[in-house]
Amino acid sequence: MKFTDIFVRRPVLALVVSTLIFLLGAFAFSKLPIRQYPMLQNSTITIATDYPGASSELMQGFVTQPITQAVSSVEGVDYISSSSVQGKSFVTVRMELNRDPTQALTQVMAKVNQVRYKLPEQAYDPVIELSSGESTAVAYVGFSSEQISIPELTDYLSRVVEPMFSSINGVAKVQVFGGQQLAMRVWLDTDKLAGRNLTASDVADAIRRNNYQAAPGKVEGEFVIANVYVNTDLTNVEEFKDMVIHNDGHNLIRLRDIGTVELGAAATETSGIMNGKKAVFLGLFPTPTGNPLIIVDGIRENLTDIEKNTPTRCKCGAGL
């Protein structure tokens, strides 16, 4: 007797088995993930090195080239790209598909350490970062405001919005594009400095002496222990203006007497534009198993809450 004869003689059993197979297939079909592209593990290792004051040619010859030659011998490298600008060197190592990212990172770190002595003494230690996902962002979300400056908007996005996007399922990291870090800017008047026999180094030393984080410790008694807190840092523009730079025994020379102080951008080399207005963008990079469609759905779910909580008249828009 053949196996199929059982179902021919028992039609009810055949119907039950067919229904069960159909239900299991329908359940399995509902669990199939929907992705834009097949799931592949892409590993990218970025090596960033800072050398303040160095030209792009110097960075290329004495920093970028030695690092590139060292990491080119790492097993499993697909291709290497590099760029050198004033004071900065970037080397990007793209590994082959589905290559173990941890092993690749270990090998790259070992190769970079082998050539560290060849780099200029004034150059900072290379910073090596592993990205085990797509090298490009899944989506970019732009923010603009008519009432607050770009540095203030960047600070708000970094503190509030970026953690919200980081919690979306499948997001590896959130990176700021076109942002400007908030900083206290001091503009010195050279004539006033010369008139008071001061230099820019004197001002820098005074700022370091008057603006630092202190940890004095605690005071212990026979029956009580009290923590000691000292307010040694400056927090607003007026406190910086009132800072004493020099005391000649008769007069106090304050920072407001030799320059101007304002809250602004630490650097203005980068900027972004959205709908003709200055904006800051957040790029969301996926994990190796992150589904771009799920990430985009998570962005849309968060946009409504973000628009309600962002500063007045702050507009946001998503570009995929």
UniProtKB/TrEMBL annotation:
One of its GO terms (cellular component) is plasma membrane. GO terms for molecular function: xenobiotic transmembrane transporter activity. Pfam families: ACR_tran (PF00873). PANTHER family: BLR2861 PROTEIN, PTHR32063. This is Multidrug efflux protein. It comes from Proteus mirabilis.
